[in-house]
Structure formats: C-alpha cells, structure tokens
Amino acid sequence: MLVIPFVPLLLSSFSHGWKWPEIIPHEWSVRAWKYVLTNHSQTWEAVWTSIEIAMVVVILNLFLALPAASVLGRYSFRGKWLVEGLLYAPIIIPPFVSVMGIYVTFIRYGLTDSNTGVIIAHIIPTLPYMIRALVISYQTLGLKWEQQGMMLGAGSLQRFLFIVIPHLLPGIIAGSSLSVLVSLNQYILTFLIGGGQVMTLPVVMLPFISGGDQAIGAAYSIIFILMSGITLFVMDYVLKTYYNYRGTIHV
C-alpha cells in the first residue's frame, strides 16, 4: 500500500508527454534521468549541500536544545508555559508569517546569499522538534540518577557522558531525524535567504514540479524520497544498535 502512490511517480520519470486520461505513458524515455544524473544539472551538488546543511543544523540544534530541554523537562517555574509557547511557536505559526521578518533581519546583518544564513534560518523551524524530543527524555530521566552518581564520586562531565547522554540517546536520534527531514524539506527559507546562490535539492526540484518538465520533476522527487528514506534508515539502524548494545551490557 505504501509503494502504490510511488508507482505513477516512477512511470512519469520514464515517460515522454504522459497526460490525462492515458492510463500508462504512450511513449517511454530516459531523457529525464539522463538530465538529472549529469553534472551540469547540479543534482549531486544540491544533494550534498542539502545533507551538509541538515547535518550542521542537527549539531547546532543539539547544543541549543540540551540545556533548554533540561530546564523544561526537569524543573517547574513561573512562566514555564510562556517559555514553552515561544520555543514551540515555529511549529504553530505559518511559515509565511515569519519568513519575511527573518529575510529583512538577515539582509541587515549580511547573512543572505550564504550557507551560514541558510543554516541559521533552518534552525528556527527545526529546533522545536529537537527540544520536544529531548524534553520527553529528560522528563523520564529526572535528577535521581545524577544525584546517585554524584554520591558515588562522579563529576559533572562524567555524569553527563555516562548517565545523561545514554538515557537521552533515543530522544537525540528522534529529534535528529525530525530535524534532518524538516531541514531537507525547506524551500521558502532556503530560496529567500539563499537568494538562489545556495542550491539545495528542493530549490533545484520545485521549478520542474510547479510547471516545468514533469518527467524531470518526478525523477528529482524520487531522488529526494531516497535521500530522506536513507536518512531515516540510518537513524533507525543506530537506534536499534544502541538498544541491542544496552541489552548485551545488561545481560
């Protein structure tokens, strides 16, 4: 059932002028794939740029989300609901509301038309997912394990590396997976902040989907799906390996 929606996409990528009401393409061609897989199409450059930006965004999100999630997950204080609302606002507020404000601000600070500006812009819609995943992990961790480690003589760094991080690892993987997928799917932010100079796969792909060559758009879509699917597979593999390792240690 999951594969069925992708069958027309695959057929379209090998078609030449597939139009309604034809059930299958009347003419076949590998023209779209030849274009997509050649160097002058910028496909591989766009794929690498997309992955590079997503990975940097994940690392920065971890540094920002760990302290925020620790406070939100383990402590109660006045105005906590307001802080949570501000941190989760990018998930709730429509992108168009904030994009133009971000764009104007980045122009003032000279962050447009650069990878750095795009990376900072991608943090805004991805950080809430990382924070939420880590908050749940911190809520189940509490403070008792660290307090016990302190009583046994463990320093703050030892407690963080050997108590906190192993417990947070599933949340880190979940938050990283969501951050990667959200970053890979960003088109408006990348197009405006990058100014057409930062070419990610959505920026290269969307013109063909929205009114250009449908066959090339379908081929790009398949590459995009494979890129996202491989990312999820790697995250899932790491998570299963981690749990298997913990099970071996406990035995």
Automatic annotation (TrEMBL):
This is ABC transporter permease subunit. Its main location: membrane. It is found in: Cell inner membrane; Cell membrane. It comes from Radiobacillus deserti. GO terms for biological process: transmembrane transport. Keywords: Cell inner membrane, Cell membrane, Membrane, Transmembrane, Transmembrane helix, Transport. PANTHER family: INNER MEMBRANE ABC TRANSPORTER PERMEASE PROTEIN YDCV. The chain crosses the membrane at residues 53-73, 85-107, 119-139, 160-181, 187-209, 216-235. InterPro entries: MetI-like, MetI-like_sf. PROSITE patterns: ABC_TM1. Pfam families: BPD_transp_1. One of its GO terms (cellular component) is plasma membrane. It is a multi-pass membrane protein. Residues 47-235 form the ABC transmembrane type-1 domain. It comes from the Bacteria.
